[in-house]
Structures are given as structure tokens and as C-alpha cells.
Amino acid sequence: MAFAQPLSSSSLSMMNRSFVAKSSVTASLSLNKSRVCVDSLKIRFQNRWSFIGGSPLAFSPIILSNSSSLVHKKPSCVRASWMATSQIASSVFAVGTTAVLPFYTLMVVAPKAEITKKCMESSIPYVVFGVLYAYLLYLSWTPDTLKYMFSSKYLLPELSGITKMFSSEMTLASAWIHLLVIDLFAARQVFNDGLENKIETRHSVSLCLLFCPVGIVSHVVTKALTNSSTSNPNNKCK
Questions:
Q1: What is d(CA 5, CA 71) in angstroms, rounded to the nearest whole number?
Q2: Whole-angstrom Cα distance, residue 42 to residue 133?
Q3: Are 133 and 96 in contact (CB under 8 A)?
Q4: Cβ atoms 41, 61 nearer than 8 A
Q5: What secondary structure does DSSP assign to the chain, as a single string?
Q6: Per-residue model confidence (pLDDT) at position 145
Q7: Which residues contact 175 (CB under 8 A, 6 or more apart)?
Q8: How far apart are the C-alpha atoms of 58 and 24, rounded to whole Å?
Q9: Is the pTM of this model over 0.70?
Q10: Which of 115, 119, 122, 170 has CA 20 to 30 A from 102's CA?
Q11: What sign does the dihedral 167-169-171-174 (CA atoms) show?
């Protein structure tokens, strides 16, 4: 006949510890023994054994490193912005180049026509190009623009800084519009001076389209040669 012996406090404590340990191990095995993913976080189960308190579960959040589980919206936005900027620069480059050609054509083909004189007297093209240039300058402006423009210790431009600044398509587009406006303005000055002094300007105007300084020099030489030939007494009729 077996008699039930009362359990001592030490036995109850050992049973309690065994039960806590078994429950913690069972919980960790049922949860794939490692991690649980909740709202893009991983909860890692760490078994820290203690002779006093058993084996409690320790939870430590770990951010998922798998790129497929995260939504990367910023790179896509940056890429879309870059594509839009590149498209604007290409469009402005093509439109600006095409827009100045009719003015050069009129000055070369029909320099004495009334429509040519009226078109070259108007300031509307320069205002339109000026607004367009200001807009492109705004789009191409960055916090490093001034640093590139005045990169030397004497606050003067340097070739290396200008090269870095013009590495952007938008900056190149704005510089191209700048050149188109200046070249057209110089060509108009050459054209008007030729009309006033009755000097041939078609070759000089054509050079201003692509090589503006050369076109100005060409006009100065042409004007000097024309004046010298008209002032030569041997060319006058006796």
C-alpha cells in the first residue's frame, strides 16, 4: 500500500522551474524556433538560461533586411524626376535652336525686306528667351552652383568647377539658350549697323549663328574695308 508523501517547497520549486522551461521551449519550437515577422519587423526568441528564473523568452525587434519586403518609393521618384528633367532639357534645346533660325534666315535671304526690319526691331524674342532662360536656370540651380562658379580662393571661376557645373543636362540647356540669345542679339547689331552704313552683312550674320565672336570680327573687317574703298579718291569718278 503506497502512501502519498507531501511535497516539500523545494520539490514544488523544481517542478515550477521545469514547467516554465518546457513551456518556453515548446513556444519557441512552435514559432519556427527563430523569428516571427510582424509589420515588417522580426522578433527573435533568445533562450537565456537562469538557474533561478528558468528559461524566459527574450524578444528583440530586428528590422527586415530583405529588399523584397520593403517598398522603395524614393528611388523611383528620383528616377522619374531625372527622366522629366532630361526630357525638359532635350525639348528646350531643340525648340530654342529651331526658334532662332527664322530670324537668321530673314537677315541672310531678305536683309532689305520690311518684314525683316520689323522682326529685328522687335524685342519680343529676347523677352521670351530671357524668361525661358530664367526658368531653366531655376531648374538647374543647386546648392553647389555658386561653389562651382567661384571655386578658387580668389572667388574666381576655375575650369574644373565649371566642368562639374556643366555636367548636368539642365545646366547645359540653360547655357545653350544663353548663347542663342547673345548670338542673336549680336547678329541683330551687325545687321542694323550694316543697314545704317550700307555694308554687306550676310556673311557676318551667318557667322554669328555658330561663331559669334568671329562674326563680329568679320563685320568689323568688312566695315573697315568698305569705308576705305569708298574714301579712296582713286575710286571716285572724275
A1: 64
A2: 53
A3: no
A4: yes
A5: ---PPPPPHHHHHHHHHHHHHHHHHHHHHHTTTSEEEETTEEEEEEE--BTTTB--EEEEEEE---GGGS---HHHHHHHHHHHHHHHHHHHHHHHHHHHHHHHHHHHH-TTSHHHHHHHH--HHHHHHHHHHHHHHHHH--TTHHHHHT-STTS---HHHHHHHTTSHHHHHHHHHHHHHHHHHHHHHHHHHHHHHT---HHHHHHHHH-HHHHHHHHHHHHHHHHHHHH-GGGS--
A6: 81
A7: 166
A8: 10
A9: no
A10: 170
A11: positive
Phi then psi dihedrals of residue 54, to 5 deg: 85, -145
Give which of 204, 33, 226 is closest to 104, Cα–Cα: 204
Residue 1 β-bridge partners = none
C-alpha grid cell, residue 194:
550694316
C-alpha cell at 196: 545704317
One-letter identity of residue 180? L
- How do the domains of the chain map onto residue ranges? 15-64, 85-229
pLDDT (tens digit per residue) in 55-72: 454 444 444 445 444 444
